[in-house]
Amino acid sequence: MSDTVPAGVTIEDLHKSYGDNEVLQGISITVNPGEVVCLIGATGSGKSTLLRCVNRLEDPNSGRILVGEFDATDPDVNLDAMRRKIGMVFQQFNLFPHLSVLENCTITPRRVLKQPRAEAEAEAMHQLELVGLQHLAHRRPAQLSGGQQQRVAIARALTMKPSLMLFDEPTSALDPETVGDVLAIMRDLAQAGMTMIVVTHEMGFAREVADRVVFMNQGRVVEEGPAQQVIGAPAQPRTQDFLRRVLNPLGE
């Protein structure tokens, strides 16, 4: 889906606090170029905050984050240049309601990359075709289902030809029937070699697609390893308890 060279990510001893609440307590994770890493854990464990620190939507208190050739925590880093290499898809779709699907996908390449309209529209239509929505290019977001809007959000991120994709629970706001469509797009991205960090509660997706799974609890990494190992045979009692509740919520 992209001819851009994938970027690796190195997170070293990352701390983030909001007042007295220490949300991240010394997180260290390495994501190799082309690798898919899923972050799992209960709400409030720091997963989304970690993701937002990677592209500096949140400023960490201490620690280091390397994204490709960029040191994201360097005070002198060119954030605009770094963020052009990072695509991020949120829980909510964050599409501009007054713009068409095509316009949503071309506004950033035209304004940030200064692409001519024809070039930006050609790339946008290419990405929309890859997510199966080229026929809806001239509709407004309100005319689309939630799953369709999230697929547009992914296409929009890909028009910037990122080296790294960040997904923050991209299916949590979707109808169960549309979750599979979005996960299929993400699986295709992974198979194409995109570096991905995914915060998710979709254990089936994590087991199938992730190279590694990181289980976080109360701002710390409790367990990490191959997806089949962490999800199928977790070693840590806290991981075991979390997965038992997620995979068998009725406790039967």
Automatic annotation (TrEMBL):
The keyword Magnesium does not apply. It is found in: Cell membrane. Residues 9-243 form the ABC transporter domain. It is an enzyme of class 7 (translocase). GO terms for cellular component: plasma membrane. Its EC number is 7.4.2.1. Signal peptide: none annotated. It is a peripheral membrane protein. Keywords: Amino-acid transport, ATP-binding, Cell membrane, Membrane, Nucleotide-binding, Transport. GO terms for molecular function: ATP binding; ATP hydrolysis activity; ATPase-coupled polar amino acid-transporter activity. It catalyses: a polar amino acid(out) + ATP + H2O = a polar amino acid(in) + ADP + phosphate + H(+). Belongs to the ABC transporter superfamily. This is ABC-type polar-amino-acid transporter. It comes from Nesterenkonia alkaliphila.
